Amino acid sequence: MQVPNGPTGPYRLLARALAAGVLVSASACSLHGVVRPADAPAIVPPAGSATPSLTDAQASAALITQGELGGRWSATQGGATWRDGLLKTRTDAPDCQRLLDGLYAEDLLGEPTGARAVVGLDESGNAAQLRYQVAAYAASSEVDAKLAWLRTLPAKCAQFTSTDVRGGRLNVTVVPAVLPGVGDAREGLRLTMSGASSGDSGDGSGAAPMLTLDFAAVRVGDRAVSLTNGGLGGAAQDSTQQAVQVGTQRLQDVLAGRPTTTAPATPLTSAPTVPRADTPAVPRADTPAVPRADTPAEPRAESPADTDEADDTSDGNTAADTIDTADATDTAQEG
């Protein structure tokens, strides 16, 4: 049998060979495309694997101590009684009501989303209380929004009235508070309340109360320190400023891993439930009322009458002694 060598035979074999080569090449390319690393899906890390901006240990270490504010401050002995009587009041102004509610609930910066730590201190001079908090929030913009709102309150709530649970009316004023230029952003307010019924005074004096309360907040990244300081005896502005200055620097040191100058404060595990007296204790008398037994009695001045009586008594006894002596002598001679 002869193989055809016409134009159709060889070309047909070549066409088949070329077609087979194209198919093999296409299959190899397709297979190579499946296993290329570049086409593999990207690995997305879990959302919770990000490093937290503030740990519980850092929050506790960043708390201020009573020693950093001076010898007048000590660990708190309980919540002040004026909080319920004066901060739980109602007003028709929405922003002013939000301020009162935030001061009472201690959340003017909103609810923290990360770690937090709180410490409470009492001041012996004017019976003030200071509550200091270190906390982390969702974003720095969230804290800045709260600070911007607080900045409007001295204009919106410069003067307003609120009503307590017994219907007593209180006059409230809000002014800006000067703070040190620390942190990334900051805001401070001073609130005063007066004119309530005498039953709210808390000290039994019958005088209308005068509450002075400072609020201050400083943002450091998405963390913030905030505090309230005050009471019926007033609020020392230097204590507020010192707490802000020292506390912000302490937080920055903790975040940077630098050693702090003093030991951290012991944070409050829960809000104190025992009311604290708002008036300082009555000072103890230094001189005892009853004379001590070992104190020599002061000699009594003798009057002329006492001197004469003493002389008469002395003369009478001498005469009697002379008579007795004479009788004894005569008896001995007779014997």
Features of this protein?
single chain, 335 residues, 8-stranded antiparallel beta sheet, 35% helix, disordered C terminus
What does this protein look like?
It is a single chain. With 335 residues, the chain is α+β, with helices and mostly antiparallel strands. The model is unreliable at 22-49, 198-205 and 270-335 (pLDDT under 50). It starts with 8 loop residues before the first helix and ends with a helix. Strands 1-2-3-8-7-6-5-4 form an eight-stranded antiparallel β-sheet. It has helices at residues 9-34, 56-61, 82-87, 94-105, 140-156, 237-256, 304-334; strands at 73-75, 116-123, 129-136, 159-163, 169-176, 185-194, 210-220, 223-231. It is built from seven helices and eight strands; from the N terminus they run H-H-E-H-H-E-E-H-E-E-E-E-E-H-H. The chain is globular and about 50 Å long. A hairpin with an 8-residue loop joins strand 5 and strand 6 (185-194).
